[in-house]
Amino acid sequence: MDKGKKKLAVLVGCNYPNTKHELHGCINDVVAMREVLVERFGFDPSHVKLLTDAPGSLVMPTGANMKAALNEMVNKAEAGDVLFFHYSGHGTRIPSLKPVNHFRQDEAIVPCDFNLITDVDFRQLVNRLPKGATFTILSDSCHSGGLIDKEKEQIGPSTIKNTTSVSYRVKTIPFQSVLQHLSSLTSINTSDISTHLLEFFGADASLKFRLPQLESDLLESLKTDEGILLSGCQADETSADMNAIEGGGKAYGAFSNAVHMVLNENPGALSNRKVVLMARKVLEAQGFDQHPCLYCSDGNSDATFLLQPEAK
Fold first, then answer.
1. 136 by DSSP, 3-state: which?
2. Cβ pair 286, 254 in contact under 8 A
3. How far is Cα 131 from Cα 121, in angstroms, rounded to an integer?
4. Which residues lie closer than 8 Å to 128 by C-beta, 6 or more apart?
5. Which residues form the Peptidase C14 caspase domain (predicted)?
6. Which is it for strands 48-52 and 7-13: parallel, antiparallel or unpaired?
């Protein structure tokens, strides 16, 4: 029966080279993940799509290209399939567009062209899954907690604050910087981010900005959906990017690296909950002040991460 199960992945690493927002470890993170998916989890290499902004990259991780890859993956999905999206790059928080939530902030990731992909886009992808397929998102970016809109929190914010004892770059671009960059593209003088994104990206802009008034009606979470989010930090925290000097010779994202360490030390199957709790411990031991979180249904909290086959 397992033969019919496909495993599909989209891996995105954005280092934003030669910009003031440059990171160093994001491409390394997803290249390492590709190897793990193939060697450990039995993914067919032809079912793993890698998008990076490395110089000479044929398909850049723009907002449109990332969404096209994710939509293509969801379109191919059938019951029992395992879908995985690993993102390593910048995140941001944008003021909520709902009048009632004016002081709330919503989570988004920042593709290389700043065409934001938001929590609403991920909610829409999860809602489109065929029954019995799962969609796991591992987001190594700042403010990544809550990246699937309305997903149930299983391992939430920690009240314990670790004392940061390491030097690193944070994987966030503040909202004002995003706004400034988009204003330079559109030459429109407004602080309304929707105006800029719709003007510059049109139909490729996030659903959040194209359908703000319909958002809550169209995209309610399903009673129990199959979205699983492992976030590198809480919604109000930053995630760390280590350059080669700080990282002891290799640049990496702290959360991606922690997950790789957990998997290396535990060859057997691990639940989603265990992966997140163990990654928290690794980051704490390394002196990082970020707390990975888990958002999914009760059943998926204890389900095996990426449905790793039992050892024969």
1. strand
2. yes
3. 19
4. 74
5. 6-297
6. parallel
Query: Which residue is associated with the tokens 């990731």?
Result: 109
Residue 161 half-sphere exposure, CB side, CA atoms within 13 Å?
A: 5
| Annotation marks residue 90 as catalytic | yes
Catalytic residue among 14, 112, 142, 293: 142
Quote the CA–CA distance of 91 and 132 in Å, as a whole number.
30
pLDDT digits (tens, 9 = 90+) for 94-147: 988 765 555 578 899 999 999 999 998 999 999 999 989 999 999 999 878 788
Is-contact 112 201, C-beta < 8 A?
no
User: What is the rounded average pLDDT of the residues 59-70?
Assistant: 98
Catalytic residue among 21, 24, 86, 90: 90
Q: Sort residue 283 into left (φ over 0), alpha (ψ -120 to 50) or beta.
A: alpha
Q: What's the pLDDT tens digit per position in 143-161?
A: 787 888 888 889 887 656 5
| Cα separations in angstroms, 34 against 43, 49, 85 | 9, 9, 11
What six digits make up the tokens of 138? 């591992």
Tokens describing residue 240:
């760390």
Give the residue from 282, 276, 278 showing the smallest Cα distance to 300: 276
pLDDT tens by residue, 181-206 = 999 999 999 999 999 999 999 999 99
* 169 membership: H or E segment, kind and range: strand 169-170
CB-facing half-sphere around the CA of 286: CA atoms within 13 A: 24
- For this structure, is 296 an active site residue? no
DSSP type of residue 271: B
Residue 52 φ then ψ, to 5°:
-140, 160
- Return the half-sphere exposure (C-beta side, CA atoms, 13 A cut-off) of residue 150: 18
Residue 305: closest CA among 122, 131, 87, 136? 136
